[in-house]
Amino acid sequence: MVDVQGTVADGFEPVRDAFAENFARRGERGAAVVLYREGEKVVDLWGGVRYADDPADGTAEPWTRHTAQVVRSVTKGVAAAVPLLLHQRGQLDLDGRVGTYWPEFKTNGKERVLVRHLLGHRTGIPVLDTPLTPDEAVDGTSGPRAVAAQRPVWEPGTDHGYHAQTYSWLMSELVRRVTGRTIGRWIAEEISGPLGLDLWLGLPAEQRARVGRIASVEAPAGPAAQGLRLRPKRSVTEAYQDPESLTRRAFAAITPLPDENDPAYLAAELPASGGVATADALARFYAALIGPLPSARTARAGGRLFAPATLTLARTEESAGPDRVLVVGTRFGLGYMLHGPASPLLGPGSFGHPGRGGSLAFADPGARIGFGYVTNGMQRGVTADPRAQALVRAVRTSLAAREE
What we know:
By secondary structure, the chain is of the alpha+beta class.
């Protein structure tokens, strides 16, 4: 029996129950969940071990309040804040052409690609004809050069498909061209530092000891393990097994897949998948997008990151319907997944991003919620992880009870 650590405010006990049940019934190994409401922390829980590949090892270190974790595509939601904040400051036109900022990008039918197309997964380049090696993926030059040369697989702006890996080099190079800084440095100086977040895109060497070891684990069979089951004509699993499918090719833009525990990977600035964060940092980040944080060390908007108009942009539907990569129907705002069947969040106004295999972070402005969940036990699935969804349901239950 896992000893769940931490605290919950009165009324949020269902979240503690769901978190404990994740360990008992849903194959959890090491994890944390944090919830902010109206800028104040109301849930702060952690448990399990930092090493998911051998949970039976009695020498495994326990998960602590300060354990950080690779969060895979949850990173996309953090990275999306950068162009939106640049737009808010008048430094980037979301309706401008990417090639205006990055001239080498204007090749092979990409001359009319807009910045908003990049954020809405509409550029038409979720794949690379020649995948990058893990070393090339993190060298800072091969990725941007490859996406700049790549011919789109559909006319940009006319459809959408999840840019699982290529989002890294599209986003990082655009930010570098606009600001002269790497995206990891920008996040550190403009977001993580001012807000006091244990969140990195490009993990410093001195922080490596805090990071849990990521590994795949099997979810137990039975109703308790079941998340949302979508039934498109072709399943994501079937599409992934087809080496010629956009699904397989999008996730294989780095081949072979990198070792996410490798210090070189942790130090790289890959905004599609390489972020490292605590659950508290993610929840606090999303809380800061929608409202001020009492203890934030920033003068901008009293700690609030998004002005009302920027918040509207983040949540306004940019892409919806059958996703050419994920197969199922997805909904995206500008850089954020929106609440829907493929990625259920708290409610219709929620926006955020899941990470393949489990982690999830989002905000709900109506409920004034910032949510962060991280795990080192990666289960199958890109969205709607059963452990994360159990926690979201518990938050919904807790909020409903407080309204009665």
